[in-house]
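Changelog-adjacent note: as of this version, every example in the card shows the full chain rather than a window. The one below runs 228 residues end to end.
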Amino acid sequence: MLKLRKKAKKKKRTTKKEPEDYNNDEVYDESAEEDSSSDNDEGHSSHRSLFKGKKNSSKFNPVTGRPLWIWGDEGYRRPGSKGKAKKLFHRSVLRDNEVLNVGDCAVFLSMARVDRPYIGRIETFWETWNSGHMMVKVKWFYHPEEIETNEERVDLKIPGGLFQSPHMDENDVQTISHKCSVIPYKDFNSRSSISDKRKKNTMNNTYYLAGNYEPGSFSVQCLSGVLK
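Full-length structure tokens:
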């Protein structure tokens, strides 16, 4: 297991921006749900939403041209909420025949390089009580090329590895591009050849878990067998 560490510093990543005809002021007037996540985000970068505030009146995403995501269930309120709850939580979103559930992994729209898309695991879906704005909380993965250390480079034997992190933030649901898979290394490695692995990763949006990365302290833990 490789462990790398250097002095922590803040890092900022920027997603692709949309025209400024949205207003997101209401979205972040949240309760203890967001307060509990703020500790995880301290010292980490922040992904900025493509869509801000009011619902888009169009039925199509202005960035991708694809239909917008809609809720896949009626929603529920958290037990123990006092008074008027500020959020209605959901377990899934739909787009045509595609279903994305809490716990699934997804590729997000961003200004990142084509070979390094932003990839995260869906932690929570919800809509705000006053505006109905569709939001998602994401726990992010990092590509090895995005990992910053003072030590040796993280050089994986097989392309397609991702590092899970505690970095979480919130985005508009419409920033989700499409569903992907992050599978165990042994399953990914069972494929016939490196060229096949690379092709599968590119064509089928399948990645493997290579280890853990802490952006705040720049520490890395690689799983056994993933390094050259």
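Structural remarks: The chain has one domain: 8-222.
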